[in-house]
Amino acid sequence: MHARSALFDLFGDHLRDSGSQAPVAALVRLLAPVGIAAPAVRTAISRMVIQGWLEPVALPGGRGYRTTERAARRLADTSHRVYRRHEHWDGCWHLVLVDPPASRSARSRLRADLGFLGYAELTDHVWVGPVASPELPGVLERAGATARTARASDVEPSPVDAWDLEALRTSYEHWLSSVRGLVGEHLAAHEDPDEAAFAARFHLVHEWRKFLFADPGLPAEVLPADWPRDAAADLFAAESERLRPGADRFVARCLS
Fold first, then answer.
1. Is the dihedral of CA 95, 152, 116, 123 positive or negative?
2. 240-246: Cβ within 8 A, 24+ apart
3. What's this model's pTM, rounded to 2 decimal places?
4. The domain containing residue 190 runs over which residues?
């Protein structure tokens, strides 16, 4: 687990009720149980400030950091997607016809960002998603790209093949078979029960969050009847809620 990714998880899943801010010392304490060393935490914080995700703030517990408005929007959208259930789909696909940036690095970053927002490349420079992402304009602007967008109710053949459904199915089935072992492993690794619950839940959410890069929340109407996502989501919800009280106590202890 990378420190930058762990900080995103921490601010998005544990610190939103605390004003999305925390002293540096508390951030170091919170990430220690998940194996992130203090120097890596401080380096990641510095990089996230440069990238516009965090900003310094003076707190009673000492110098700290809080999420920027841009980060708050991203984390709110991510949280909604992490904990979402099946939602009504209006039957329309969202198409994004991209005029890509000239820089290769900008194009690579744009591809990653569009994938995270839930889009897949249908053909060269034409991206498709089940819903329009409110973050799309900002992602395009930061990449130096422009795009036209459209809604399409009749796309033949179905664009669902733009995503690797077989790989996604395999990932969900692996999750169903391994998640209780993952939780049990981290519960057993810590003597303090609240710290153990925090570490187990942190890894649980971190692993589940990876599905955001592969599954945009494709509507049930276009998926096979035996699709395993709902069973995987039910297991995630049950385990995360079971671990939440202890995790919350550990967070409160570190922040105080």
1. negative
2. 240/201, 240/204, 240/205, 240/208, 243/183, 243/197, 243/198, 243/200, 243/201, 243/204, 244/197, 244/201, 245/197, 246/193, 246/194, 246/196, 246/197, 246/198, 246/201
3. 0.78
4. 164-255
Q: Is 218 a member of any domain? A: yes
For the chain, the domain total comes to: 3
Residues 168 and 144 in one domain: no
Q: Reduced to 3 states, what is the DSSP secondary structure of residue 122? A: strand
User: What would the pLDDT profile of 170-201 be if each residue is shown by its tens digit?
Assistant: 999 999 999 889 899 889 989 999 999 999 99
Nearest by Cα to 89 from 219, 229, 215, 216: 219
Based on the domain organization, do 46 and 108 belong to the same domain? no
Q: Which residue, chain included where needed, has tokens 């276009």?
A: 222
Q: Is there a single domain that holds both residue 38 and residue 63?
A: yes
Residue given tokens 């492993």 in the structure block? 185
Distance of CA 115 to the CA centre of its chain: 12
